[in-house]
Amino acid sequence: MTKSLRERLQGKPPVAPADAPVPPTRPAAGVSSVPGTPTGDGYGGGASGMFGPRKGGDASALSPVDELRRSLHRKLIDRLDLEALEALTDEKQIASQIRQAVAELLRGETTPLSQTEREDLVEQVVYEVIGLGPIEPLFRDRTVSDILVNGPRDIYVERAGRLQRVPAQFRDETHLLSVIDRIVSRVGRRVDESSPMVDARLPDGSRVNAIIPPLAVDAPILSIRRFGTELGASRLVELGALTEDMLYLLAGCVKAKLNIVVSGGTGSGKTTLLNALSSFIPATERVITIEDAAELRLQQNHVVRLETRPPNSEGRGEVMTRDLVKNALRMRPDRIIVGEVRSAEAIDMLQAMNTGHEGSLTTVHANSPRDALSRLETMMLFSGTNLPDRAMREQIASALDVIVQVSRMSDGTRRIVSVTEVMGIDGEIVQLQEIFLFRKLGLTVGGRVSGEFEATGVRPRFADRLVLAGIEVPGRLFFGAK
Ligand SMILES: Nc1ncnc2c1ncn2[C@@H]1O[C@H](COP(=O)(O)OP(=O)(O)OP(=O)(O)O)[C@@H](O)[C@H]1O
Ligand SMILES: [Mg+2]
Hints:
- 32% of the residues lie in helices and 20% in strands.
- It contains 15 helices and 15 strands.
- Strands 9-8-10-11-7-12-13-14-15 form a nine-stranded mixed beta sheet, with helices on both faces. The protein has a six-stranded antiparallel beta sheet with strand order 3-2-1-6-5-4.
- Helix 12 (345-354) packs across helix 14.
């Protein structure tokens, strides 16, 4: 249900299907829906969008530039040949047509504008029509990793691991909803009262989540999380996420086809590390990746990427990770990489690991290696298995070789805080032994986390498997502080 260009230009709210009510758009307190303020031109309400926060709540007090932007927008609709524009599928062409029209319109304006202001204005109208509106510049800024929109006026970004509030604003909830709608409709999804939550992936790989009222209590919420996977293994060492020695060992584990789980909290760098580790998979192997939103960027040629599918509006057609894991097993994989195990697929994944599909990699949301084990156990239960506890633990213990715990520290840095070997099971308890850890020493004056990586002095049992695979494992890796 893509909106027409005319509707987009007119700033219409998302079109709800005939049988569903229009999404509720509660006005933000004291700002939008000022009586008598035209809103149909897309600039009503007069909020300054990208021009930064507007002082006070008086919608009629527009700055000359805002005023100009608003009138431009209206004139643009009259002037552009919308039908011809709509026929263009290439957004670059649409942008250039709009740019031209805006430039022409501006020539007739009397408000004095500097060259930069003029360029800004052109950019903004273009963003407005085909882009993400006020958050487009944030989206283009490669230093921004996450964009978090908490309602029209509260926008945060994460840069270098730190969250900060930015002055960009949407005009009102309708404006925000129309941008959300534009984003999700482009990837064939929709958001309205009947499906108030959407999780999608943008063409550049970023992940988008939108949740609107009434599920989001105060306002529509949009979270854009950029790809966490552009950091390669050596870059992670440079960033201090792990040491050369740790990387050497982990790379060896991947090459020797050990089964590895990366465990960590939200945004702790699990996917990034998984992607970095995958670079050590030999190019001769056939790799199948399974993800909810295809984020991984494997370097190898022989990679088959599978992605789950949510149910359609009638609740049908869902394809779950579990289905894909089962299917992948029939595709003669050398390795299976599951982006994240969250649910019943854990049992299929572990079974696969135990039945000759070694070298599997996955991530799990957990706070410690031990927690990762209990999460996996709980997830196995989701499959409806009636295996006794001990049998489940045996499966886990025999499937997994290594758990790598990652953590997002208080200063925004991500580190591997533990590399742990899964030894086997003793009685009811899965035996773990730590090989490397990060010892946190404290905070510097600037709030940065200080600490050091340590080898615990234990030579992992799996070292022999590395040696068998032809990988040298010098004893010095495991001794002393690094
Ligand atoms: N070692 C690192 N140093 C700095 N930034 C990092 C590091 N690892 C990951 N990041 C950044 O942290 C963000 C989150 O990374 P990533 O997506 O890998 O985390 P995740 O644990 O998989 O998150 P999720 O819980 O959403 O799956 C990304 O922006 C990524 O670029
Ligand atoms: Mg992830």
